[in-house]
Design brief:
By secondary structure, the protein is an alpha/beta fold. The protein is built from 16 helices and 18 strands. The strands form 4 sheets. The chain has a 7-stranded mixed sheet, sandwiched between helices. The chain has a 5-stranded parallel sheet with strand order 16-13-12-17-18. Strand 6, helix 4 and strand 7 (155-158) form a beta-alpha-beta unit. The radius of gyration is 24 Å and the shape is globular.
Length: 449
């Protein structure tokens, strides 16, 4: 019995210290996924004027009052906009800066009421991303609005875990649907009326299309373009965003994945990596370029804490007219950063000397992410492998559903810090236990003599 108790004491000592350090950090990272801007943020910027062509179909990407997943929003938005065949807007129940995962804050173009006033009826396409508050009271305005749009004849595209939003609204009952490979199993029990399909980029079930994980949103948006316009603009859109995995007319098959040992990287990164990386927003940045920075480094890997900045702290307008509000100015935050990343091919071409000078004042240099043509996430995954480690980059690509067949990753082969840190803490806990036991025994001997 004494041996068993001794073993349990050693195990407990080895677990307690890593847990005491790691669990609060992991919980803090989880809470930060949809952190709102500070309450004293300046007034909401006006949406830039964008020409509305009544001859073209209108597509809207929904953002909930509590935010949405960054790539689920920005990937289909840019893909549809790049086709040149749609009026594309972001819509939400309210118009204020709303959090996207990774630390980016989007000001929606329109509220639901604004959209109705502009169109006088339903949009042609409604894109539904993953939302953080499914089945909570805060999601009810979105759910009710989606039900109405579907009843009025809109084509609905559910992206990734946006399928859960649609299922909660009853819009998938009696249908086939798909979702992210890591979540689809969680949806089967609460939504048994849905036939859940694995191993495909998207499922087209008439007036509802659902996609697999995250970047399968590009394929879903291309399918919408095929359906409502034609295959040629879909192909042009795929080329414009650099998506080399387009499968015209039918969904491409993808591996049926499961959570494996590599999934441990996510909680370990959350617990034991604390680097803060600034991401400088600039006008004319591509929406996918932005998503690739915030979803790769933070959203899906938790390898860093990305902080959205602009040169002067003011809002910026992306390539297709979306408004983003940074957390702070570059000068006010630079002292707390380990790196300063600049997404966007346009920024890489111009190399703003004022930005370089401002960053240099803090002993850093701006690192331009998108210096080569191609799909933006490929560049950020290569940088993630170099700056963190290859296993983390591969895990992130797996979660994103981005094939790496033609993407060469080079960097450390092992996630050294996140493995060594908990082991050292466990050893420290055992050493502390041994020291405590010896001290107690010494005191006991002294009292007996």
């Amino acid at each position: 019995m004494r041996t068993v108790l001794s073993i349990l004491a050693v195990v407990l000592a080895a677990v307690l210290l890593p847990a005491a350090v790691g669990v609060p950090r992991g919980l803090a990272a989880a809470r930060a996924r949809y952190a709102p801007l500070p309450a004293d943020t300046a007034e909401v910027p006006a949406a830039p004027e964008r020409r509305h062509d009544p001859a073209m179909p209108t597509a809207v990407v929904v953002v909930g009052a509590e935010g949405a997943e960054v790539s689920d929003v920005l990937a289909p938005f840019e893909t549809l906009a790049a086709s040149g065949s749609f009026n594309v807007y972001t819509v939400a129940p309210v118009r204020r800066p709303l959090p996207l995962t990774g630390g980016l804050h989007l000001v929606p173009d329109l509220t639901f009421a604004d959209l109705d006033a502009r169109l006088g009826g339903p949009p042609d396409v409604v894109v539904v991303p993953a939302l953080p508050d499914v089945e909570r009271p805060s999601a009810e305005p979105v759910t009710a609005w989606l039900q109405q749009q579907a009843a009025d004849g809109a084509l609905v595209l559910g992206v990734c875990s946006g399928a859960r939003v649609l299922a909660s609204a009853g819009l998938l009952d009696g249908r086939e649907a798909t979702s992210h490979w890591a979540r689809i199993g969680d949806f089967e029990a609460p939504y048994p009326e849905v036939t859940w399909v694995r191993g495909t980029r998207y499922v087209d079930d008439g007036d509802v299309i659902t996609t697999g994980g995250i970047l399968s949103a590009v394929d879903g948006a291309l399918r919408v373009i095929e359906r409502l316009v034609d295959a040629d603009p879909a192909r042009r859109a795929a080329d414009a965003v650099g998506w080399r995995h387009y499968s015209p007319g039918e969904p491409a098959a993808i591996p049926v994945r499961r959570l494996g040992p590599d999934a441990v990287l996510l909680p370990l990164n959350a617990a034991y990596r604390r680097a803060r990386v600034g991401v400088v927003l600039s006008d004319d940045v591509g929406e996918l370029e932005l998503a690739s920075a915030f979803d790769t480094y933070t959203g899906q890997s938790l390898a860093t804490r990305t902080v959205a900045l602009s040169a002067d702290g003011g809002a910026v307008v992306s390539r297709h007219g979306l408004v983003f509000v940074p957390v702070a100015s570059l000068r006010s935050a630079a002292d707390s950063l380990e790196r300063v990343l600049v997404p966007g091919a346009a920024a890489a071409r111009t190399r703003d000397p004022a930005l370089a000078a401002a960053v240099a004042e803090h002993g850093l240099a701006p690192e331009h992410l998108h210096t080569q043509a191609g799909f933006p996430f490929e560049a950020t995954l290569r940088d993630l492998a170099r700056s963190v480690d290859v296993p983390t980059a591969r895990w992130t690509a797996k979660v994103l559903e981005l094939p790496l067949d033609d993407v060469r990753l080079s960097g450390r082969a092992w996630p050294v810090e996140v493995v060594v840190a908990p082991l050292l803490l466990a050893l420290a806990g055992v050493v502390a236990l041994v020291g405590l036991v010896r001290a107690l025994r010494g005191r006991s001997r002294g009292a007996a003599s």
